[in-house]
Design a protein that fits this description.
CATH class of the largest domain: Alpha Beta
InterPro entries: AAA+_ATPase (IPR003593), ABC_Ni/Peptide_Import (IPR050388), ABC_transporter-like_ATP-bd (IPR003439), ABC_transporter-like_CS (IPR017871), Oligopep_ABC_C (IPR013563), P-loop_NTPase (IPR027417)
Largest sheet: 6 strands, mixed
Protein name: ABC transporter ATP-binding protein
Shape: globular
Family: Belongs to the ABC transporter superfamily.
Main location: membrane
Keywords: ATP-binding, Cell membrane, Membrane, Nucleotide-binding, Transport
Strand order of the largest sheet: 6-7-8-3-9-10
CATH topology of the largest domain: Rossmann fold
Radius of gyration: 25 Å
């Protein structure tokens, strides 16, 4: 039986001759999931686009890409359009941008159906309802008439999968299909993809940098780095005994949830002097409570991890602690006179017109420092503190990698010698190995400078790596609080238990065991 996808010697080059993908070999069998794993710039997404003949203008693909018995490379565009959707379909990373906000859901599915065969409005709507039911949308007949903004993030991703399935392809290309989703929603989408594989015999090419997701879903894995294949193996074999040093480094860089503590945490440990205390705070947005009766104390030198899903109030609470968000009720007692923020997106938070030397001392300039010699010396000290070379001072943000930009954000935050640092998802936009370096840097800076920190994140394993105490938020309320490792290893609240259970671990054998336990 011909495999739904066979790639042989795929090479993708730029007009200047630079090779972006170099001689990739890959096969995805019917009823199986093959994962293409790598960090930014590895060529994963370009490979997915090449399979559908959708490479950006100027890039050239050579070698062989076969969808069943149909060759993709060199095929005319009108014939490629026939293959897209029927032989292979793409599930996008960001469902919000993949859907038309001005069209009802059933009409968008109807458009896909009409692109391949004559389908009446009535039949199109009926088929749309069937597809929505097939991907687990509740009350599909009603929701078929909804617009994308009326659906949750997980429901939107299910709709994107329904669109991909509309023309009954043999191959589904899932490009980071859970990156934009909360961990519990991610678990639901992975279950859906597994079910489609088993029930329909669907072949899935999973493109991902998340090794926990790969361990949970994949049957075989191909690891790529800077366009070159590092190694390929069955998932159990690759995770248990990686042959390449790069693969071993990737696996070692993944934060792990802590094991169950052998000794119970003390019930009332001695608390450090507080730098900020909030009691009963309430924040309303258009009459809806983003925070509802939240109490929190952050001690001097303590690292508190704020954990929760989208809409839990994590970022709003961080802004309250910094004095950036007015409250509607409650008390905020701030004893830290110097506070600083590290944003989620280091590129968006750095002025692209300025060089790094100017960016990192901006807080000092705002505070009134005008002596150029002092500013230059302080900039050099700050860049050295975050382990960057001195020549970075003369560069602009666009000339730096994502990890380097986040280090610059740390340097700028340290400029004012903060007593309280709020880090809002500081590693979520980074590759796993870069994330590991930034977490190491955070621990080193915390040990050196002794600031208190509130680490806002949706990644529970990261909290276990850096935090002394974890606070779990849900819909604006604290549902659990305690020593970080104890909360993650033995959560008391049902919601925290659900969060921990939904985190895929980078071990396929353990992950299968956890899935059975969850059922």
């Amino acid at each position: 039986m011909t495999a739904p996808l066979t790639i042989t010697g795929l090479t993708i080059t730029r007009p200047d001759g630079r090779v972006l993908v170099d001689g990739l070999d890959l096969t995805v069998a019917a009823g199986s999931v093959t994962a293409l794993v790598g960090e930014s710039g590895s060529g994963k997404t370009l490979t997915g686009l090449a399979i559908l003949g959708l490479l950006p203008q100027g890039l050239t693909a050579t070698g062989s890409i076969e969808l069943g018995d149909e060759q993709v490379i060199g095929r005319p565009e009108n014939e490629l359009r026939e293959l897209r959707g029927t032989r292979a379909a793409l599930v996008f990373q960001e469902p919000q941008s993949a859907l038309n906000p001005s069209q009802r859901i059933w009409r968008q599915i109807h458009q896909v159906l009409r692109a391949h065969k004559r389908v009446s409005r009535a039949d199109g709507r009926r088929r749309a309802v069937e597809l929505l039911a097939d991907v687990g949308i509740p009350d599909p007949d009603t929701r078929a008439d909804w617009y994308p903004h009326q659906l949750s993030g997980g429901q939107k991703q299910r709709v994107v999968i329904a669109l991909a399935l509309a023309a009954e392809p043999a191959l589904l290309i899932a490009d980071e299909p859970t990156t934009a989703l909360d961990v519990t929603v991610q678990a639901q989408i992975l279950t859906l993809l597994r079910d489609l594989r088993d029930r329909k015999g669907l072949a899935v090419l999973l493109i991902s940098h998340n090794l926990g997701v790969v361990a949970d879903l994949a049957d075989t894995v191909t690891v790529v780095r800077q366009g070159e294949t590092v190694e390929s193996a069955p998932v159990d074999e690759l995770f248990a005994n990686p042959q390449a040093g790069y693969t071993r480094d990737l696996l070692a860089a993944v934060p792990r949830l802590p094991a169950a503590p052998s000794d119970p945490a003390p019930s009332d440990p001695e608390s450090p002097e507080p730098v900020v205390r909030v009691e009963g705070i309430r924040v309303l947005f258009a009459g809806t409570a983003a925070l509802d009766g939240v109490d929190l104390v952050v001690g001097r030198g303590e690292v508190v991890g704020l954990v929760g899903e989208s809409g839990s109030g994590k970022t709003t609470l961080g802004r309250v602690l910094l004095g950036l968000q007015p409250i509607d009720a409650g008390v905020v007692d701030v004893r830290a006179t110097r506070r600083a923020l590290i944003h989620q997106d280091p590129y968006a938070s750095l002025d692209p017109r300025w060089d790094i030397g100017r960016i990192v001392v901006e807080p000092l300039y705002i505070a009134g420092e005008r002596d150029d010699r002092i500013l230059r010396e302080r900039a050099a000290d700050l860049i050295d503190a975050v382990r960057l070379p001195s020549d970075v001072l003369r560069r602009r943000p666009s000339e730096l990698s994502g990890g380097q930009r986040q280090r610059v954000a740390f340097a700028r935050a340290l400029a004012s010698a903060p007593e309280l640092l709020v880090a809002d998802e500081p590693t979520s936009a980074l590759d796993v190995s870069v994330q590991a370096g930034v977490l190491d840097l955070f621990r080193e800076l915390h040990a050196e400078f002794g600031f208190a920190a509130v680490f806002v994140t949706h990644d529970l394993a990261v909290v276990g790596e850096v935090a002394d105490r974890a606070v779990v938020l849900r819909q604006g309320r604290v549902v659990e609080e305690g020593p970080a490792r104890a909360v993650l290893a033995a959560p008391r609240s049902e919601y925290a238990r659900d969060l921990v259970a939904a985190v895929p671990v980078p071990d396929p054998v353990e992950q299968r065991s956890r899935r059975k336990g969850i059922r």
